[in-house]
Amino acid sequence: PSGGGTGTVTVVWSANNEADLQGYRVYVGTSSGARSQVFDVGNVTSTRLTLPLGSTYFFVVTAYDRSGNESSASGELSRSVF
Q1: How far is 77 from 82, CA to CA, in rounded Å?
Q2: Distance CA 74, CA 46 (A)
């Protein structure tokens, strides 16, 4: 447990080459397979997230198109923020 505060994590991914790509979503959870938060980060291939200290976070990224169709999730990554 931490005494409070936040830390940052930079998440980077490869671009999706679909012609109608609209953007990306980064899903975050505090256990593998859990997705308690979602960040719509727009049409970029990296983002910096500010998260509470004291946990290990798990991340996946999806792409979505102009019609709202969403891709399968990327492989899961984890990072501890202490």
Answers
A1: 17
A2: 14
Model pTM? 0.92
Taking only the tens place, the pLDDT of each residue in 20-43 is 999 999 999 999 999 999 999 999
Query: Could you tell me the fold of the domain covering 6-81?
Result: Immunoglobulin-like (2.60.40)
The residue extents of the domains of the chain are 6-81
Residue 1 predicted with pLDDT over 60:
no
Q: Which two tokens stand for residue 9?
A: 């994590």
Pairing relationship of beta strands 46-52 and 55-65 according to DSSP bridges: unpaired
- Report in angstroms the alpha-carbon separations of 72 from 40, 45, 69: 15, 16, 10
